[in-house]
Structures are given as C-alpha cells and as structure tokens.
Fold this sequence. Notes:
CATH superfamily of the largest domain: ATPase, nucleotide binding domain
Number of strands: 12
Shape: globular
Structural class: alpha/beta
Largest sheet: 5 strands, mixed
Distance between the termini: 16 Å
Strand order of the largest sheet: 3-2-1-4-7
Bound molecules: zinc ion
Amino acid sequence: MIIAIDIGxxxxxxxxxxxDGILGAVESMPTDAYLGADNMYKRIENLIGLADMSKxxxxxxxxxxxxxxxxxxxxxxxxxxxxxxGFEIKKRLEEKFKVKVTVENDVNxxxxxxxxxxxxxxxSFLALTLGTGIGGAIVEDGKxxxxxxxxxxxxxxxxxxxxGLECTCGHRGCYERYASAKALxxxxxxxxxxxxxKLFFEACRQGNxxxxxxxxxWVDYVSxxxxxxxxxxxxxLILIGGGVSAQGDYLADKIKESLKGKVMPSFMKDLDIKMMxxxxxxxxxxxxxxFNHQ
Length: 294
Ligand SMILES: [Zn+2]
C-alpha cells in the first residue's frame, strides 16, 4: 500500500493507493498555507503517523511549486506557502518514516495520472491546468520533460499581451492573466456580474448571446496562447485540466475551432484537444505512477 498525498495551495489531499492505482477514500484538509511550510509539514507528518506503517511501502507526493523530482526538494515556491522554497520533503519524510518517498510537481502529476489512467490517444502531449494561474507539463514518450532545472512548462507566463495586465510573477501581459479560470471569473463578473462558473456555462450552452460573447472572448485568449505552444512543440494532443475540464467536449471543441484559424494548417492535421477526465484524482494517481517509476 502506498500513501498518496497532494499538496496544493488551498487543500492537502490524502489517500491510500494500491501500486496499480486503485485509490481508497480521499481525505482533504485545508493547507492553511499562510501558517508557513513548517506548520504544514508537521500536519502532514501527523497524518501519515496515523497509518499502520507495517503495511505502507512508500509515500508518493504531488506538490505545488517547482520540484526537483530526483531529490524530492522544493526548488521554488511563491509566497503563497511561506518558507516552502528549499524545503527537503523527501529527506525529512524518509528519515522520519524509513520508507521510500517520491515528490513531483502537481501539474506533472496530473499529466502522469492522465497518461496512466486517462485512456489517452498518445504518450506524447502537452498538459495545461487552468486554475488561479496556468500550470503546464510537457510529456514526451511517457516521460516528463524537466529541462535543465526542473522548471519547464510555466505556460502561465507566456507573453500574451505586450505591456498588458500586471502578473504575480512581476511582469506584464502573461497568458494566465487572460486565460486562467480566475481570469474567466474576472471577465464574467466584469461583463455580467458575479456568478458561479457552472451557471455561466449552462447559460452559454442554452445559447445566451451576452454570455457567449464573454466565453468566446476568453476562448480566444486560451487559443492565442496555445498558438505559440502548437508552433513550438507541434503536439498531437493537448490536455486541459482544472475546474473547466468538467465542460468536456463542449469547451474542447470551441477551443479547437478557435485555434484552427490561428495556426498553420499542417499543425492542425493531427492535433486533438481534450479535457482531462480524472478530475481531482489525477494528481494522486500521477504521484503513484511517478513513485512506481522512480
Ligand atoms: Zn507572469
């Protein structure tokens, strides 16, 4: 039995998994990130401490931040979890519990989870998660492309608008300021007033024109960023995750249609755009897949 943990900026998820990826019940607790990395780590340690360690073969972790997946260490994390940069998760947990521990970035884990259990048409693909920001993963022949310092695929900070809106990275005009789920919510509340994203999509599906104008504008931003990625990577599959993935083919088809008008035809020939299908389980499953292959 493997303990699988997903450390996000908002929640920490915890489950037991079999090596072939059957998850038990998933427990969730708030990250309380503002209390800092040490506090968060202690609570994770306490949670693991409740398990019968004689039955546990290892601990598989998916985590926010830039992660050195060989050393299981946080290379860089924003101030959303103070003190998390430099945190030695693998070393500390291995010393404490004397079992194998692996750590990989959460978007990479989501991509690996989908690769393992998502019935994909290809083992090479790009993945984007649209949330507060936009995370990315590059998978080539079933393996994560890590770059020189484990920090590839920061798709959220692609340049989209020259001298555009200010971004959390300290620069302007980044992709995620226009095309993240948070940006969609801002655009909705700007044009239509505050509302639940699900209700917004329902109105769009019913053909409400004012709502569709807002959606089409956001889809236009999404595909504008994908245009750069498609011309750079020539992928045959792009997977999109985050809360909007619940919109399935309705949204995937809109993005694909919008992209069609922006890239050279040869790039569209074999390109499919799909939503992630595993939802919240993708990160945990990907952590277990990474554990199995580390
Ligand atoms: Zn940025």
